[in-house]
Automatic annotation (TrEMBL), chain A:
Residues 91-227 form the GST C-terminal domain. Its EC number is 2.5.1.18. PANTHER family: GLUTATHIONE S-TRANSFERASE, GLUTATHIONE S-TRANSFERASE, GST, SUPERFAMILY, GST DOMAIN CONTAINING. Belongs to the GST superfamily. Tau family. Residues 5-84 form the GST N-terminal domain. GO terms for biological process: glutathione metabolic process. It comes from Aegilops tauschii subsp. strangulata (Goatgrass). It catalyses: RX + glutathione = an S-substituted glutathione + a halide anion + H(+). One of its GO terms (cellular component) is cytoplasm. This is glutathione transferase. Keywords: Transferase.
TrEMBL record, chain B:
Residues 5-84 form the GST N-terminal domain. This is glutathione transferase. It catalyses: RX + glutathione = an S-substituted glutathione + a halide anion + H(+). GO terms for cellular component: cytoplasm. It comes from Aegilops tauschii subsp. strangulata (Goatgrass). Its EC number is 2.5.1.18. One of its GO terms (biological process) is glutathione metabolic process.
Amino acid sequence: MAAEGDLKLLGLSVSPFVVRVRMALHMKGLSYEYIEQDLFNKSELLLKSNPVEKKVPVLIHDGKTILDSSAIVQYIDEVWAAMGPSILPVDPNERATARFWAAYVDDKLFSAYVGINKATTEVEREEKVSEMLAVLEQLEEAFAKNSNGKAFFAGDSIGYLDLAVGCHLLWLKAQHKMFGVVFLDAGKTPLLEAWAKRFAETDAAKEVVPDTGMVMEYAKKRQAYRAAVAAAAATAK
Amino acid sequence: MAGGDDLKLLGAWASPFVTRVKLALNFKGLSFEDVEEDLSNKSELLLSSNPVHKKVPVLVHNGKPICESVIIVQYIDEAFAGIGPALLPSDPYERAIARFWAAYVDDKVLVAPWVQSLRAKTEEEKSEGLKQTFAAVETLEGALRECSKGEGYFGGETVGLVDISLGSLLSWLNATEVISGTKIFDPVKTPLLAAWMERFSKLDAAKAALPEVDRVVEFAKKRQAQAAAAAAASETK
């Protein structure tokens, strides 16, 4: 294995942003020390490494700290450009397109399913589910336009945008189990549904994506936490 | 690059996101057609170039549209790599740092708190927005100290991505000072940022891109009056 220096990743196994980074590391064939964080009880190392946002993922490479999952993935792609496949495309236009859709997903898809998690009423949840479905329709179009009939957003094998979208699938799966919503429907979003299956079969995904049970467990933990915070706030008034 | 590069910027003079792209083009020494959009009556070109968000800025390069200001700036840097100065550093670690702070500017300084303070309907909302903005600005002061390494810009000796991201706000920061008397870059609390603002504003590329402060003041006052009228109208129903 090529000299990759000292690599540590502070993460949360069910965080899509962490999954994205771990898949990138896997694509490049890099070994690293993975340190699972307890976000309800943040470690010294996390608080020291990311004092500004106190979030994961945090990549520590030879003592240097790299933050923000998109910046980390691009960092990995650039430092180990000679190893493994290219994560971002080479052409500036294609890079801009990949970055555009990645930003879209992190904004719209993420906020929709977080909204579904946090919804306290059926009505609220329905609203967020509609939002989610609208986003997935956009992505279906994006896939049709950009994949050129190939298996992945990036072409014959996964790339930046596949990671950016694919890392969120674990939550779609969990919510399907928790709330019964069908997000990826062979009827409405056939291309995306087929892509999601292929994505799940990749080595990187199999290695890194946690199983749905784990995701659901974490969702319950977060729900309990939110309820406790709300109760405390209510009694404090 | 051979032949004529056709560069069209679809924008709106008051938008800091549009200013951001103008700054990048100017710093690279690129000429472009500045197309002013009427945002209440968007052109066919805008709607077809940015069907997902229907927003400005959009850079159309040889007929191909690129959307989202930070993505456009990176595109300009990559597509015109041989022309003018580089907007991102060559070292991957420094690039990651630049990307992080550029995202921070948009999340913490520009979009959330400060826009809120401009659009705030109550004094409480406004002061909360300002409080958050000031906290973020203090963090940026630290970032400038680290990134500049004793030189004048976030990019070091020369202007880079973060300078351009933050610099796109300068007319608005000046306008805020005129309207409310509040200096966002307080020379006592954030001396480096105050000095940086002076220095950046004097650059030819910046002077050509930044809208006139008086015009922005007028625009902001009009917007505030509209918001107040709308709020009053909704309360009298």
